Each structure stands twice: as structure tokens, then as C-alpha cells.
Amino acid sequence: MSKPDPTAGFDLSGKVAVVTGGSRGLGREMVRAFARQGADVVIASRKIDACEALAREVREETGREALAVQCHAGRWADCDALVDRSYERFGRVDVLVNNAGMSPLYASLPEVSEELFDKVIAVNLRGPFRLSSLVATRMAEGEGGSIINVSSIAAVQPSPVEIPYATAKAGLNTLTVGLARVFAPKVRVNCIMPGPFLTDISKAWSPETLRGLERAVPLGRGGEAGEIVGAALYLASDASSYTTGAVLKIDGGAAYAPA
User: Fold this and answer.
1) Do residues 60 and 34 make contact, with C-beta atoms less than 8 angstroms apart?
2) Residue 1 is assigned to a structural domain of this protein
3) Residues 124, 165: contact at Cβ < 8 Å?
4) Is 99 left (phi over 0), alpha (psi -120 to 50) or beta?
5) What is the CATH number of the domain that holds 68?
6) Domain membership of residue 229 as a residue range
7) Candidates 165, 234, 242, 256; catalytic one
8) Residue 205 in this model has a pLDDT that exceeds 70
């Protein structure tokens, strides 16, 4: 008798995946990967034009349904509206990826304004809390599902220029473990913790910063956006059916690396 094919678990046919910050960078690559594996997708970000452009690309390339939704992940009402729109359109959500994030520059810690601090916490932590609470509750009442939070190695190895961001991402790691326990066994909640990736944000990095990656990252470079796809597909699909409460570091070895 032939054994079951373990790779079949990566199939997402018939599933619906919602990705915040889904119009660019890591989120964009996850959206495209999910659709290629058979999922219908909801692409959410503040820039509706970018979401709609990617939705058209997904429909043309894969034939899957793609819904574009304007959503500021730091706003409670926008999170509620995103959930409502997703369920109204598809009747279900099987995968939620909390990928939206922000890390504004600041001159010094005393110069961090209350508004900036609150905005960073809202987008990186409060939004994922609200979205996960709503979606996981519905998942648990239905057929279950998977939630993926996208953190950062700043959560465990913060640099001086990203303290509010690192604080929020550390909270997101903790939220991951807590929600995994609250919504088990039907809902799995895991976290991807990326290091430096060469997305569109990296275009603003100085040559010195880019050269620094060669020294600071054991693999000698920043990651390409597509290199997040394997982990995202694993955590989104039944291939990770015995994985929950995990924080998966994908950083070329940067965090905890010897100086």
C-alpha cells in the first residue's frame, strides 16, 4: 500500500486567505503564493490602488478570486470592516496573516511623540489583536483555521533606532503564544520572525547599511521577498497541522549571531 503524499498538505484549494499589508513586500509574495496554491485571497492595506492592482494580477495569473480592501490596521473600525467584508464576500476565512507593520524613524527616544508611539503600537500590535480575536472566534465556531503573525527579530534583538517597533513586535510574539492556547485545538496561531529583507523599504537603506548586512548576517546578505513563501505556505496549510504557538526565525542567522 502506498503511503500518503506529505506534500499534499500544502494545497490551499478551497481556502480563503486574508493578508494585511498585502499589496507590497513580504505580504505581496504571500498573497501570490497562496493564490498559486489554490486559495482565494483578500488583499488589505492603506493604499487601495495598490491592492486593486495586485488583485487584478492574481486573477489574471491564477484564476483565483481576489478582493481588495482598504484598511488601516491600526484602526479598530477598519479591522472590523475588513473582517465583515471578507466574510460577506467569501463566507469564510481559513488563513489570516497579520503582516502590516511600520517603524518610523526618530531622532532620539525623548523626541518620540505620544502620537508616534501610539501609532506604532496600534499598527504592529493592536490591529493584530483585534483582527485575530474576531477571526479566530469565527474559525473556532466553524472548521478551524490558521493565523500567522509577522513579527521581526527586533523583538528579541532590538537596535537603538527601533525601540517602539521592537516593543510592539515583542508583544506580537507573546500574543501569538497566548492566542494559540486560547483558540486551540481548532485554530493554530504561529509567528514568522523575519530579519532584514530586501523589499521596497530597503531601497531607502544607505550603501553602508547594505554592506553591513554582509558582516552582520551569517548568510552574508538580506533576504529576498520570495524567501518568506516556504514558511508562509507551511504555516497556512495543513502541512503544519501539529504546529501552533511557534515563532519561526527567518533571518539568515542574524539574531543571536556572534559579533
Assistant:
1) no
2) no
3) yes
4) alpha
5) 3.40.50.720
6) 13-250
7) 165
8) no
Nearest-angstrom CA–CA distance, 162 and 109: 10
pTM of the shown model: 0.93
Whose CA is closest to 74, among 131, 17, 19, 153? Answer: 131
As a whole number of angstroms, the distance between CA 112 and CA 168 comes to 15
Specify the range with the lowest mean pLDDT, choosing from 8-12, 124-128, 139-143, 175-179.
8-12
- Domains identified in the chain, total number: 1
pLDDT digits (tens, 9 = 90+) for 53-94: 999 999 999 999 999 999 999 999 999 999 999 999 999 999
Angle of helix 163-182 relative to helix 114-121, nearest 10 degrees, comes to: 30
Is 87 among the catalytic positions? no
Of 4, 11, 16, give the one whose Cα is nearest residue 144: 16
Per-residue CA distances from 66 to 81, 150, 197, 208 (Å): 17, 21, 26, 39
Grade residue 11 by pLDDT with cuts at 50, 70 and 90: very high
Q: Measuring CA to CA, how many Å separate 68 from each of 45, 130, 165, 214?
A: 8, 20, 27, 37
